[in-house]
Design brief:
Number of strands: 5
Radius of gyration: 28 Å
Shape: rod-shaped
CATH topology of the largest domain: Beta-carbonic Anhydrase, Chain A
Structural class: alpha/beta
Largest sheet: 5 strands, mixed
Order of helices and strands: HEHEHHEHEE
Helix content: 55-70%
Number of domains: 2
Strand order of the largest sheet: 2-1-3-4-5
CATH architecture of the largest domain: 3-Layer(aba) Sandwich
């Protein structure tokens, strides 16, 4: 009789231990699956683009919205200077150009940006010239950014009067 009770309690302990292990395995599997989903969502949410943009606050939101809409990114790294298209086109002030390059490299290497936009805009105090001259600067600036050798797409944007719409410059 004592032997039967011992066998009974051993069987109960074995059932409890088995049930506990199954429970732990199920919970662990669910947590792992949820963590994997979180990791996947996090990587999707952390997509970046980079913009060499004018410091002018009137165009910041327009450029940010354009990059998010047309390139499907969650975040836009802004590298701001007054008249960056002129600075990059002329390529005279090596210190500023090198600083812009360093910030774009951070965006590319640390945030994974695959596209960089260079922006010119109406009413720019840093580059107070006509739209035609600014577009010529944008095209020269593109050559400078491509010379950085980052292997990324470089696009050009023009923000017109009113600062509400970004146009892709071909």
């Amino acid at each position: 009789m004592v032997r039967n009770k011992i066998k009974f309690w051993r069987a109960i302990k074995l059932c409890i231990a088995s049930t506990f292990l199954i429970y732990v395995a199920v919970v662990w599997s669910n947590l792992s699956h949820k963590n994997q989903l979180s990791i996947n969502n996090m990587s999707e949410e952390k997509t970046f683009a980079c913009v060499a943009n004018c410091m002018d606050g009137r165009i910041q939101n327009t450029v940010d919205s354009y990059m998010k809409e047309y390139y499907g990114v969650a975040y836009v790294d802004m590298v701001t200077e007054p008249g960056p298209n002129k600075i990059l086109a002329e390529n005279k002030d090596k210190a500023i150009v090198e600083n812009i390059k360093k910030r774009i490299e951070i965006s590319v290497h640390h945030h994974g940006s695959q596209v960089v936009a260079i922006v010119g805009h109406f009413g720019c105090a840093g580059n107070p010239v006509s739209k035609e001259d600014q577009i010529a600067h944008l095209k020269e600036a593109k050559k400078t950014v491509e010379s950085f050798g980052l292997g990324i797409k470089v696009i050009l944007l023009w923000i017109g009067e009113g600062w509400q719409k970004a146009e892709l410059v071909e």
